[in-house]
Batch of 2 targets.
Target 1
Amino acid sequence: MKFKLKTIALAALAPLALASAQAATITISCGSVGQDFEFCKKTTAEWAAKTGNEVKLFTIPNSTTDILALFRQMFAAKSTDLDVINVDVVWPGVIKDHLIDLKPYSKGAEKSHFPAIVANNTVDGKLLAMPWFTDAGLLFYRKDLVEKYGAKAPTTWEELAATAKKIQDGERAAGNKDFQGFVFQAKAYEGLTCDAVEWIHSYKGGNIVNDKGEITINNPGAVKALKTAASWIGTIAPQGVLNYAEEEARGVFQNGNAAFMRNWPYAWSLGNGKDSKIAGKIGVSALPKGGADGQNAATLGGWQLAVSKYSKNPEAAASLVMYMTSPEVQKERAIKGSYNPTIASLYQDKDVLAANPFFGSLYNVFTSAVPRPATATGLKYPEVSAAFWNATSDVLSGKASAEDSLKKLEGKLKQIKRNAW
Amino acid sequence: MNNKTRTAWLFLAPMLIVLLLVALWPLGRTIWFSFTDANINNLDAAKFIGFENYFGEYGLFANPNYTDGFWSSDWGTAIVNTLKFSVVSVTIETLMGLGVAMLLNQEFKGRAWVRAAVLVPWAIPTIVSAKMWGWMLHDQFGVINQWLVDWGLLAEKLAWTADPDFALWTVVAVDVWKTTPFMALLILAALQTLPKDCYEAAKVDGVHPLRVFWKVTLPLIKPALMVAVIFRLLDALRVFDLIYVLTSNNNSTISMSGFVRREMVDNGYMGYGSAASTALFLIIGLCTVAYIKLGRMKMAED
């Protein structure tokens, strides 16, 4: 009986097996923040219709820390479940052993993308991922409220704090008790590392670990930066930011309950969407400087697409990657979702600029964004970042002073580094 | 070996093999990994390094780099957090479970319905209830903050899950909500097996109900209570999901299991994480043995 069942099952499956030999089924993970999923569904369906292959979407967590953890587990098990994966800008050094070289498939297409990102995605001469969209931290603000209180878009963090306080007090007095001055990402995860790198860099406090791999975090600029950020909690930012990621911050801002928000460009098109309470009232600028003699700093973010080494259909998977990173798709995503293209010429495109005026005015911010120290720390980057966000979180929540926390962090980083990164 | 024994072994074999595969093999592998420098990036390259992960220069215990002492290291904090969470939550759950069970043991109309309703929190998967509470406790949109402010109990909204002063106790509160029904159920089962004649005798003698509770009910359900507490204690000592979902999971709330996961998966140190995992296993074992010993001593006194 058992044998019979098996034969029947095999007979029934045979046509399916034949079909899959011609048309591959590619599984892709694309992200779940904002409109990521809808866009992914649409572009992959277009590719599937064009090539006759089938695409399955793989839902991944919201937080980049959790996504990396998931992928590393799948790689450790040599899982064939995923063909195309989305790669955060800080990951190529961490997962380099599990991705295929895309050079044979790209046919030089990478040359039109920003060289810095292509360099970031190239490890040991292998192009491990194609740039998909780039990101840089931006300051979003309520144009209407800033004008109402006779202020300007702030150029330093000190100005931001003062303006935010003024607007917050005014709006709360006017009846909106839940109004907040400034929201950002301070949950203990990779997003806090992004935010804190911006603060520290803007006060000229370096980049945690410098290019040579030396630990530079314990310095006066960094202390000043963390002290400034800690002073916001409970004054212009709610205590709850300590548990906010991107989407929580956007929720508060888009509901009209915050004057300023630090977020990635994707918040622009959603904030101006139909269901947004603040459509048409949003201004965007570069993040403030740390004091009058500080500098503007935006953390480099962004995502790439790569093909897993364990994929059963690398060729079809690579073709999907090339389609999704092509100028046409990047242009559409820029117009409809304000995802920053990684192709320089698209920043001069009229349609793109009409949808996202700040792409033109803030072009420098995008091209000069500060990378996190992922290249210098390689495989140990996740741990370095976790130590850094935990130390920052301790300062923000008032558990430790900036001086003590950074001193402790320095010791911990030495411990993580041991002999070499 | 006689025929009977052989047959017995034959019948036992499938179960033993399955047990070996699903329980002993992973356990053995974890313990083996704890003596290696395995990294998640390439498990095949693991080398044997003896007790380095436990007592070495960068090990769990006796690490010379812990400049502020063991208890302020991440691993020390994780142990303290877990013990705090376990002791407080299990104590509250036992007391409240006992209360609920005593109530449900009374005869009243609609008792079956109330019994079923009480079990609802236990029936909801932890991830779902943690997410649900996460929204209810949200500092801006959360309904709990809204009520407390509306009723004038709070001057301003609190960040229950973000503020390090509250985060761990918020987790305890949610755990109590979730697991009290489990304790109540186990205790209720014990209460229902109690012989009626003891109570009738007490009634005839006119003993005070409180005295009946202390002298009759409690000693009789004690064995069942002990088992229930052990179940909960084992569960609480390996708490992970609630803390992971509800809080921002930084050093101030991380549990031992959370630490293991972070080292193993986030940081990729399979070997070091396995060592922490093995240590967790031993600590739980130690707690259980201590608890049983304590319980025996007390019982012997009685």
Note: Chain A touches chain B through 40 residues (CB under 8 Å).
Target 2
Amino acid sequence: MTRIGPYTKRVIKHFKKPHNYGRMKNPDGLGKVGNPVCGDVMWLYIKVGKDKKGREIIKDIKFETFGCVAAIATSSVITDLAKGKTIEEAMKINREDIIKFLGGLPPIKIHCSVLAAGALSEAIYDYLSKKKRKIPEKLEKLHQKIEKEKREIQKKYKEWIKFEERIHKKKS
Amino acid sequence: MKTIKKKKKIYLDYAATTPVDPKVRRAVFPYFSEKFGNSMSLHSFGQEAKIALGKSREEVADLISAKPNEIIFTSSATESNNLVLKGVAFANQKRGNHLIISQIEHPCIMESAKWLEKQGFEVTKLNVDKYGLVNPKNVRKAIKKNTILVSVIHASNEIGTIQPIREIGKICQEKGVYFHTDAAQSFGKIPLDVNKMNIDLLSASSHKIYGPKGVACLYIREGVKIEPLLHGGGQEMGFRSSTVNVSGVVGFAKACQIAKKEMKKESRCLTRLRNKLIKGVLREIPGSHLNGHPEKRLPNNANFWFEFVEGESMVIQLDLLGIAASTGSACSSAKLEPSHVLLAIGLRHEQAHGSLRLSLGRWTTEKEINFVLKVLPEIIKNLRKISPFKK
């Protein structure tokens, strides 16, 4: 497959014309992952509906992403992979599915696929929490892990904020 | 997203590297298979190479008003900078163990300083203001009894800001401290005079001025004590053993000769195009900001940050349209932190992630700048549509 930069054609295709991007009004679930400090932020919105068999499915899905090529491409792909799937099925989508779908990612960009998978699971977590449903153990674990990472980055960011405040003070 | 029609390739990354000037290519060619001698050999082949080397040394020295015997050839500006920091530190240990650099040095200076710290040397990093300028007063304050070297980059490779090196050099001279400047980006582009600017050591590179890669130089003022990194046959006055890359050196010298001749005209022309680009971007793109000093900057450097978008995305969008640019965002490197230079001038992380550097050169045309001004606003607009931070 021909490449542009370190990326496969399929990554570039999704980057150039991402699917399902934009804000969703009144989503049933919202997953926010990443941090502007690191240069990657993904927000994933889901609307939940029911299929003919009465199972809960992801009826609509949208994303908003601040980030690199891989972040945008993986966001686009996760929306494609999850749209129309049942909640059960959507929860099973992982980073390998995303990477496979894109024909590979540079090693340094694997974290983008982790981020995208995390955004989806967080959106489902948000939906289930709002509905006061029981959270599957796997989802809960993932949620705890993401929260922990958020706290760690905020802790690190705090030091950066201090550093930045120092600089800004000097300049004013 | 709306797509924009692709056109001919446009290179706007001259700060990364430059194409070899055809005149340089012609000058270098005979030195591969015809005049291939080792400049240390006694026979006619060797002497031919030696003469070419001597002439080249004169040519390079001439560009910065140095004496030919004060120029040594190296393989890269990185090597020159490593040699300065480590070589000066180790040769002058009796005088002291304190070095001063700025916060916005090239990684090869930052990392060499870091390594020296591990060896027991002390390093002070000077702050810069929001334009990236070092205040000479801070240099004076930072110099201590045990200071042996001050090293400040002449023009920033990222934001293009030009430092008041004459003033800094003067202070160092008064205090009896060696002054080094990394001139990789400024050499051959703006006037440099090691005597008028009180410079003791200066690094410059060939591939930034339309010469071949793999060759660079270091100016070492007569009498400056410096320990070599490479020991061996004693080439380059014993400062840098290795068989000399004669073809590279000849190309570098030719590039210097052209630079000297064209500098005035070229810098005037590039400044005009650069200003057009900067003005156009700031006017056409809401939420766009210039990094670096508006006037005290390299004629060929434009560096911006754009709100709510990430650098790599911009670079690849531009690349898809055939425009080569670069970013200070760290999204493609192993660490999460963006460029230390952009953070040093006070940008927040998310701001630094949205940076874009466009650097112009000898073959940049007005048409190319117009094309960038046409497509860049659309690219930014499209990326913002995807971004969660849009207003």
Note: The first helix of chain A runs from residue 9 to 16.
